[in-house]
Every structure is written in C-alpha cells, then in structure tokens.
Amino acid sequence: MTGTGTALGAPAERREGRLKVTGGARYAAEHPLPDRAHARPVLAAVARGRVTAVDTTAALGLPGVLTVLTHENAPRLAEPDDPTLAVLQEPGVPHRGWIVGLVVARSPEEARAAAAAVRVEYAAEEHDVTLAADHPEAYEPETANAGHPARREYGDPDGAFASAPVRVDVSYRVPPLHNHPMEPHTSTAAWEGDRLVVHTSSQGGTAVRATLAALFELPEDRITVVTGHVGGGFGSKGTPRPDVVLAVMAARETGRPVTVALPRRDMPALVGHRAPTLHRLRLGADTDGRLTGLIHEIVTHSSRVKEFVEQAAVPARVMYATPSSRTLHRVVRLDVPTPSWMRAPGECPGMYALESAVDELATALGTDPVRLRLLNEPEREPDSGKPFSSRHLTECLREGARRFGWDGRDPRPRTRAEGPLLVGTGVAAATYPVLVQPSTAEARALPDGTFVVGVNATDIGTGARTVLAQVAADTLGVPLDRVRTEIGDSGLPSASVAGGSSGTASWGWAVHDACTGLAGRLGGLTGRLPDEGVTAHADTTGRANAESPYARHAFGAHFAEVTVDSVTGEVRVRRMLGVFAAGRILNARTARSQFIGGMIMGLGMALTEGSTMDAAFGDFTECDLASYHVPAHADVPAVEAHWIDEDDTRLNPMGGKGIGEIGNVGSAAAIGNAVHHATGVRFRELPLTPDKVLAGLSGAPAPTSGRGG
Predict the structure, then answer these.
(1) Hey, CA dihedral for 63, 64, 67, 70, is it positive or negative?
(2) Region label for 641, one of left (φ > 0), alpha (ψ between -120 and 50) or beta (otherwise)
(3) Distance of CA 391 to the CA centre of its chain
(4) DSSP 3-state of 598
(5) Closest Cα partner for 601 from 635, 627, 575?
(6) Strand pairing partners for 701?
(7) 0.85 cut: is pTM over it?
(8) CA triplet 469, 518, 539: central angle to 5 degrees?
(9) Cα 407–413–417 angle (5° rounding)?
(10) Residue among 93, 450, 105, 131 at smallest CA distance from 256
(11) Span 64-118, pLDDT tens digits
C-alpha cells in the first residue's frame, strides 16, 4: 500500500466535536464513581514563613467532612524531581498560596465550607516579591528554559552599538500573565485494589504516570492515567500539577475515589504563570538600515522553590543578520509562585520586545518596517550558523502586505483620524522552533477492513484525534472514515507531552512509521485477516530526538489595524491578518483555528491581560476572570489566517511544523506598533489599557504597575 496523498491537508471535521458540544465528552471531574468524595486545598495566607499550628477541629465537625490532611498527617512522598509537587510534606511556606492543608468531604460544597473553617497559625518572615532590573540578587543562570544557554555573544556588540550611525536603546515590560484554560486543573483518583486509576486534566498522561510511580513508589504497570478530554492548558498542564498528587493522597487515605478541582482563584499560585520580563534592547544600524549590532537583555523572576527562567532573549538569536550580538538572561529568586510554561514561552514576550524595537528602528531610519525586516534577512541562523531547513519569512511579509493593503499606508504617525478615533496599522514578524520528541504508536488492521491507531497522545483542544487519523489514512492509502484513533490512556503506547507545538509532529511520526510497517505486513498476506487483526508497532527514539544539521523553525508575519479613542484612551483592533510558513499544513480547518486562536491570545496580551504582584500582600491581584481580562467576542475583530505552502523534507515524514504557538508570537507587537502609528506615542509596557494610553496622549508619564511585576 502507498499513501494516496488525499487525507493530509484536507479540512476534516474534528471527530470529537459533536461529543463536546452535546456534553458527551467527559472531563476529569465528570466521572461519577461510587462513593466519590471531593477535596479542597487550604492555601497559605502569608508570603513567607512556616506553619506553627493547624486547628482542624471546626472543619472536622462540619457535615460530610471525611478528613483533613496537613503536613502532620499526609502520606509521605518520595522526593520529587519537581519540588512544586512536594505538597503537605513540611511546614515551610515559600510563597502565599502554598498548599498547607486538604479537606476531603462528600461534596464540593461541604469541602469548600470546611476548608474555610481550618485555622492555621504561622511564623511569618519578611518577604520580597518585587522584580526590578537592578535587583541586587539578580544573577545569570547557567541556562534558561529548555536548556538554552543564558548568554550568547559574538562579534563586538557594545562597540558596534556605540559606533552605529543609527541607534535605538529602549526598554519594554511584559507583566505576569496567566494561562486560565476553560477547564481548571482537575484530577479524579481511585484505588482499585492495588491498582491506581487517575483521570486528569493534563497535557501528557505518560509523564503523569511516571511521576506518580516515583512519588508513591509504585510500579508504573499498576497505574492507569486517562486524559481522554482536556479543556485547554496553554502550557500550564504540561507537567503534573499538585491537583493530581492531592487526589491520589486523598483517595489512599479515605479509601474512596476523590476529585480535586482547583478553584480558578487558586490557579495563579499553583499551576505556574508567565513570569514578568524586563527587556532592554539596543539596536545599531547603518544609514541604509542594515543591523551592525543587536543586544537583547532580559531580567525575570523565579520562585524560591524552583528555578525557571523565561528564555525571552532566545528569539533574537534567530531572527536577523548582524555581525555582532549579545543575548542575556538574568533572574531573581523571589517569594513568588513558581512560573512555568505559557503558550510560546520565551518567544511570545521576547518577540514582542524585539519586534517593537525593530519598529522603533524603522522610525528612526525613516524607512518602511516591512522593508527593514526584508533587508536584514539572514542566510543562515545567526546564532548557530546552521542553514535553515526552510525559511519563508520574506514570503510571509510580502504576501501579508499584499493581502493587508500595506502599500497604501501613510507611514507618518497620527495622520489618519475619524473624529476622535486615531487610526493606525502595524506589522511584526514571528518565529517558533520546530520541536519533535520520541514517541511510540501501534497500528492495527481488522478483518472488517477498518484500522485502529493507538498512541497515548493528549488532545487539549487542537484536534489531535482527527489529524492523527489523517496521517494514518494517508500512509495506508485508505479513506479517512476507515481509520479510528485511540488516544489519552496510559495503556496505549507511550507518547510525548502535548506542548511546544511538538505534539502532531512527534505522534504523527510514530503513527506514520507504525502504518508503514503495517502496510508492509499486509502486503505479504493473503486471505482473511485473523479475528484479532494484524498489528505493527513503531518507536521513533533515536530519530525524532537526533541532532539536526539544520535550524528548524516556523515563521510568520502579523498585520494589525487599530483605532485609539483620543477621549477615552480605549484601543480597539479592527482587523488582524497573519501569514505563516509552518511546513505542510495537515488539516486546513484545525490549522486555521489554531492560528486564529493564537492571534487572539496575542490581542489579549496587548490590550487586556496583565497581572500585578502586590508588594505588601505577596499575591497576584488579578487572580480570576473577573479581574484578569481575556478577550471576549466583542473584542475580537475580523481575523484572517493564511499560510505559505512549504515543502520541507528535513522535519518529519509528514513535513509539518508545529502551529499551536506561532500564531501567538508577534501578534501583540503588531498591535502595539499599530497603536504607535495611530498616536505617535510609543508605549512600552503591556497591556495597553486606557489609563496608560490617556497618559501618553496627554504627555504625562504613563502609569506602571509598580508592584513587583
């Protein structure tokens, strides 16, 4: 059998769509097991210190309460690789919101009431939650997130900048951001004899099973982890979180199934956040606009519990040709919750700052910002010197400009108005790395002429079931409706996490190889297949994670048109347009959805989303959706997503690049650049809320959060 080439790329409908819209899809909290209990965490009310006493008398006296776990009576865990999972193990409190108790009751309402009745006494200590670029405890770590060196330098960046005829030296600030998926972090755990069964809202069931096995000192084959349907994650569910550990603890102690659903207000303290980043960019160029030096330095925060460094200067190592460059990360360990991944970690805030600074350079040069980007295209990846497997950023910029009508733009700021509305347009580029992880898969042919593909992938809302079926159908050369996909169960072949835009590339490679092997087996058979069918397995270890001689990235270009109300300071986005180069598009329908979703997330980052750390209280002020504002339908304009057809044979058998995050990268910068074009004022701190805009329009100093990020 050979692939027909007809399944991949088609706009196939998502297979689970009807289940989701009719309520048939069950999420982690929706498994009505007999005698199921519910648990509610009790969170620390000091920003730093230790628990000195816990009084559970009142809580235990309330109706329906089964037990209250604290560091004094909770099951002992093996030391975790991730210290944020060492819950209820000791009295220390490293930040406000640290878990100091867990109430287990018959209903969520009873658990909530009892959690409020637990009385905890503390020995509070002085705390520091305020990030500043000149913080005395800032240091240069060995690496930033994902193993990137914290510092990269070549040429003479300081000398090149000092001698450049055109220079830009600017600072940008991105506040803490929160993931807030529609489904909060939730787990239901049940012991069935000596077996543990867990339904959890996670981006990777294979990793959850391995973590639970280590923490509770169990063989992995006695643990089943189910991630059948997951209501979003945006990175926050990329690794196991405290909910799954607490659910297993409580189930062991009570002998009942237990569900832990983290309240939304508690999530910023417990499941990670995008750390604030303070950026300083220095760009030097000759009078023609060619970069002679690029310096991007960032300062960010992490917790006392664990070092996590947002790799926000890394995109500057990829984007533009320059003979001299320095990219540097510094971090301050504060008494704050541990930051973690949020959609396009590093690239998202880093490209906001870089692409805003490039726009400022275009203004200083008096040149078109699209032309400036085209002029500084590198032939090879600047940092590594590797050739690109494919790089069609110039095509994205040109096609985007054509579709957007960029050539008709008056480049002068504040030249277009409609009554009190100032109108402007902006552009920004985007990049995201191609990441692929080893995975395993199996493919089975059944006597009735259908096929089953199995892989422990997790669909976090991206349509993985559908796209993997398309990969299988294309490889086997059969109609799509003859392929069934089984995912989200640790009993299936192990798979990598759904994160880093790597899911489809990683799982699809294994599925492709399994189906190729199955086709080979079927080619040598005659007669009816056995009742159990014929199966082939695949493991991409050693190939998917092999070092590539190529720099592999997706690229894109964003264009935005905004209005700025000169009376109220309100910014509205009228239209957004993105053009992307992301390899072979495997499903046109789901791909467009992912691109548009990322662009809208960038709109939220630009205009409404932002969090502040209260210096006195030591907590995020905006901790729920009443105060942390994500875009609503009324905020979302006409959004267009297009792509360049790429034929890149240096990626994986399907030729696809990840698309879940490239749409998020750069869109906030395009909006910010459009606001500058509309107003003539450069705003350098997100989000662009009316108070900041009005202050800028009046010439007054723009207000800042001023409270530790």
Answers:
(1) negative
(2) beta
(3) 23
(4) helix
(5) 635
(6) none
(7) yes
(8) 80
(9) 90
(10) 105
(11) 999 999 999 999 999 999 999 999 999 999 999 999 999 999 999 999 999 999 9
Render 645-685 in DSSP notation, one character per residue: -----SS-TT-B---TTTTTTTHHHHHHHHHHHHHS----B
Amino acid at 512: H
Query: Which SS3 state, helix, strand or coil, does residue 603 take?
Result: helix
DSSP β-bridge partners for residue 638: 575
Catalytic residue set: 661
Q: What is the dihedral of CA 162, 166, 171, 177, to 10 degrees?
A: -130
What one-character-per-residue DSSP string does 380-409 give?
B-TTT-PBBS---HHHHHHHHHHHHTGGG-
Tokens for 262, please give them. Answer: 């983290």
- Residue that the structure tokens 């909770």 belong to: 74
Nearest to 239 by CA among 204, 215, 214, 274: 204
Euclidean distance between the first and the last CA atom of the chain, given in angstroms as a whole number: 57
Q: What is the DSSP letter of 204?
A: -
d(CA 468, CA 484): 9
Task: Provide the token pair at 439.
Answer: 């995975």
164, amino acid identity: A
Reported as a single tens digit per residue, the pLDDT across 533-568 is 999 999 999 999 999 999 999 999 999 999 999 999
Give every CB contact of residue 34 below 8 A, 6+ residues apart in sequence: 257
Nearest of 607, 596, 547 to residue 573 by alpha carbon: 607
Bridge partners, 202 (sequence order)? none
The CA-atom distances, in angstroms, between 1 and each of 238, 394, 539, 687 are: 37, 39, 21, 54
- How many angstroms separate the CA atoms of 187 and 192, rounded? 16
Tell me which residue has tokens 């832990």. Answer: 260
Instruction: Decide: helix, strand or coil at residue 5.
Output: coil
**In sequence order, what are the residues at sequence separation of 6 or more whose Cβ sits closer than 8 angstroms to the Cβ of residue 576?**
558, 559, 560, 561, 599, 603, 637, 638, 639, 640, 667, 670, 671
Residue type, 114: A
DSSP 419-454: TTEEEEEEEEEEEEE------EEEEEE-TTS-EEEE
